[in-house]
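Two quick folds needed for the group meeting slides. Do the first one here.
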Amino acid sequence: FQEQLAAAEQRGEQRGEQRGEQRGEQRGRIAGIQQGIQQGIQQGIQQGIEQGIQQGIQQGIERGRREENRLILENLLQVRLGELDAKVALFIRPLSALSAADLTRLLVQLSALPVDENGVRLAQELLAEHVLRMYFESGDERLTNLVPSLLGLSVDDLEVLLSQLPELSVEELLGRL
């Protein structure tokens, strides 16, 4: 009987150890999984913050560049032509997105305009044509023919149309003008 009791105790101890090990391993796995999930969440948050900061910096730089371009264009036109009329002012904002090379070419063209009423008219035409060429195929001659119609719009209608240009095709623009 003593031998059976000792054997039963030994089996009980072994089973207890096995169960303890299994439970310990299971708890360890659960703790490891939880720790892994927590680390993954923290890494994801950190990456999101870093990407957000980088994207914010890039957007800020782009906004600053556009604002600087707008001021340069606006100042040149005011110096050359005096007070800017509402139509000229409407064309300045989209043109502020031009690349440095394209903006420089436009500034050179504007600086060559006469300083009189004819210069104001030519500036309006030049600005209108550049805005159209920003959004549409630059080789399309129909764009040049649209400039007088575009300039014939009221200030309110012109403002609406300029805001819609990025979504329009040339055919849709032709239909509206």
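Then this one, please, same format:
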Amino acid sequence: MGNHVYKDIIEQKKLLRHKLREKRNKFVSALPPSILNIAFTNVPRPLLQICQDKMDRKSPIAAFYAPMGSEADPLKLAQFLSQQDIQIALPRIFNKEAGLMNFHLLNPNDLFSNLEIGPFGAAEPHKDAPICSPDIIFTPLIGFNRLGARLGQGGGFYDRAFAALPQCVKIGIGWSIQEESKIPIDIHDISLDYILTEREYIEI
């Protein structure tokens, strides 16, 4: 990929992020509390099957994220899976400049206690929480399409994590309004396996 092409993709992503953030913010702010409270609480049968398949071999680990702003909130889903004997983890950034993070296990008896604020303002585990290698990673996103392309924040944290964990199942979580037919991608972008919105579960 030529340098000018790469720079063009970077600029396309920047513009699309701005557009989709505004679109998401307006969409979420217009939702009534009754809808917000039940969004992303219905666990699709295929997702449960993925977890059950992982349980045949060991106690699986599912990594989630602490949402910020109008991001889709996956934590009720995390609580449900924890009750199904799935271990739950959250990411913790350990090198902001290099775009690197680890996943740390949470206490199943008190999932979201003992969290602290990370360098970008998101809640993350304490550094002493056990580091793990998740079997399933639920990732936030700004945009997606039905080919599995994901537009993230631009730091490359999740793409590096996916590259380091090639066997993990990659599931994007976002609002249906974030779907975009064309997502600019470069050689470092890793596609998702599934996408969960408030309306549907999309298998790539």
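Slide caption for protein two: The helical segments are 3-29, 33-38, 45-55, 75-83, 157-164.
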